[in-house]
Amino acid sequence: MALLMAASSPATADPLSLPAFIQSIHPVKADARIAYGPGTSQWADLYLPKDPGPHPVVMLVHGGCYSASVPAESTSQIAADLAGHGVAVWNVEYRRLGEPGGGYPGTFQDIAAAADRLRLEAPARHLDLTRVVAVGHSAGASLALWAASRGKLPAQSPLRTQGPLRIPTVILLAGTGDLKASAGVIQLGCSNVPRINALVGSPSATRQDAFSDTSPRELLPLGVRTVSIVGVYDDNYPPYIDLAWRQAARASGDPAEAVVLPDVGHYDVVAVDVPTWAIVRERILGEIRALPGN
Hints:
Blueprint: H1 20-23, E1 32-35, E2 43-47, E3 55-61, H2 76-83, E4 88-92, H3 106-125, E5 127-137, H4 139-149, E6 169-173, H5 179-189, H6 195-200, E7 225-231, H7 243-252, E8 256-261, H8 275-289
Parallel strand pairs: 3-4, 3-5, 5-6, 6-7, 7-8
Antiparallel strand pairs: 1-2, 2-4
């Protein structure tokens, strides 16, 4: 199977260099690729367990500095692995920076549409939407948490929709729920380009703070449990980057837990061929088992 060398959709104006880990990935084909919109990046890959179900669901959001240079196939290996352990995985692609529609509001609208598309797929695919956990890696962590936060969006936000899919638990793998506080660190880890500003868009008369409907911290309390998993040697998202988020979440009444793994870097938490992944996988499965209905 070919190595993952290029994006699944054209990157038109993004200087991000693909890390060696991303370039070395052998993509794993999904059971189904399902479009949730007309665009070339508006789809999700569904990985299904062998048993008939109903299956709990992981909504998986890949990272890559919000860049069109990094596609959803970068998390296909962990999606397939989780499916092999009894979980349906919805591996989401979305419009990213460097392609038409990427940034505000398109990136967020895609995450919302992908989450809500699960309702249409659930009956035929035997998905149990009472047991959904969102998992995001790196840049995808903030988007996964945002997907679970949509019920708190301001009424005037163009991102607000009626009846968003309920996601009670979110696992942030080497990522953060506070875009404003983390913008500088994220920039350093992403080719020193100010990606957060490009992602959240510009303020306007009706949206004076561009983080008001894009950063989960600004929406607290969310009524969502979060678990942050990060390696002590992560130089893209150091362990301290999420401290402000967790403190704010706990102060609002939301449960927020941190797991700092020794001898682990940024990509170890999503690399199926290193021992760390077994720890991460078990934590994901444990959070699913802890949901009501199990």
